[in-house]
Design a protein that fits this description.
With 118 residues, the chain is α/β, with parallel strands linked by helices. It has one domain: Response regulator (Rossmann fold, 3-Layer(aba) Sandwich). Strands 2-1-3-4-5 form a five-stranded parallel β-sheet, with helices on both faces.
């Protein structure tokens, strides 16, 4: 799968990207929401992994804009915002899944690969 990771925390992005690459996936990384939106608009991705709290453009707005543009690429929110209301906002914005930090990488990988089977 070709996956776009939109995450402003460099350590978190490196951890996710490394694990996904080791599992055989191709990974691109965007450091902020605006860059992520531009990359998603220009790229051909099989899945998005998007943080909710991003500089320049938050993850919910990023995904809403992609959905409004007709983009149906599966998306997983990966966020420290873990209250029920937070998860509901992400899912209503067009997210297909929502995983709360901290998380086990094995679960993230299983969820992303499940999105790829849809």
């Amino acid at each position: 799968m070709r996956i776009l990771v939109v995450e402003d925390d460099a350590d978190a992005a490196a951890f996710v990207s490394k694990g996904l690459r080791e599992a055989g996936h191709v990974v691109d990384h965007a450091i902020d929401g605006e860059t992520g939106l531009n990359m998603a608009s220009a790229g051909d991705y099989d899945a998005y992994i998007v943080d909710r709290m991003l500089p320049r453009l938050d993850g919910v707005t990023l995904l809403r804009r992609r959905r409004e543009a007709g983009d149906e690429t599966p998306a997983l929110f990966l966020s420290a915002l873990g209250e029920v209301d937070d998860r509901v906002v992400g899912l209503k914005a067009g997210g297909d899944d929502y995983l709360v930090k901290p998380y086990a990488f094995s679960e993230l990988l299983a969820r992303v690969e499940a999105l790829g089977r849809r």
